[in-house]
Amino acid sequence: TVSVLYWSRGAVMSEGGEQESADHEEEVAEMLKKMLEKQGVLGKMKAQIRACVVKALDEGNEVKPSIPNETLIMNELIREYLEYNGYKHTANTLVIESGQPEERIPRDVLATQVKPQSGVVNPELPVLCSAVKLV
After folding, report:
1. Cα(122)–Cα(129) distance, rounded to whole angstroms?
2. How far apart, in Å, are the Cα atoms of 97 and each of 91, 93, 94, 129?
3. pTM, whole model, 2 decimals?
4. How is residue 18 annotated by DSSP?
5. What are the C-alpha distances in Å from 62 to residues 29, 89, 96, 98?
6. 3-state SS of the chain: helix, strand, coil percent to 5?
7. Highest mean pLDDT among 5-14, 56-65, 75-84, 104-113
8. I need a surface site. Which of 23, 46, 75, 134 has the fewest CB within 10 A?
């Protein structure tokens, strides 16, 4: 039989209302962790927390060093790739840590900076993917 547990203020209660031992707290926490991992929520939460921490630590650093144009282009190619693949928090962390401007470099400008393997930048994929040829 499946036992449904409710967690309330540190006590674990069974469906019938009896208090279970505190040993079950760890079991419930582990079960929730596995469920959140399976749903892909836990990784996103961790990434969001990391991005918030980096942003909070970075707020004190008002003066950003100037970034060479080549680095701006590379960062923007990486940001486009990360966002395309759903790594929004990682992309935000890249922008914060690198000092990359929030304003995007237009895609057509990025495309002029990459020599595509096939000769053409695929409009359906990040520009960076056009520069990589998988063997």
Report:
1. 8
2. 10, 6, 5, 23
3. 0.58
4. P
5. 40, 21, 12, 13
6. 55, 5, 40
7. 75-84
8. 134
